[in-house]
Amino acid sequence: MAEKIRVSWLLAVVLLIPIAALLAGQIAFLTPHLTYLSMLLIATAAAIGAFRRHGQLKQVQPFWCIFIGLSASLLSLLL
Questions:
Q1: pTM (global) more than 0.90
Q2: Which of 5, 20, 46, 62 has its CA 20 to 30 A from that of 52?
Q3: Number of domains forming the structure of the chain
């Protein structure tokens, strides 16, 4: 199950790029980079929740590190 969650997250990383570009073009104050980071942060939080729900607690730590890094990046863009 952990492998399916990791593969799904990796697909989200790749597939969110065109979606972020499309959404950023529709909303004037959002940049594609800011939109992508926001959606990637949500996808990472969902992956952490899925790991916890399925009892894969050893997989949670690397994704928490990714989540913290994405949060710092997003905050640095907003400030």
A1: no
A2: 20
A3: 1
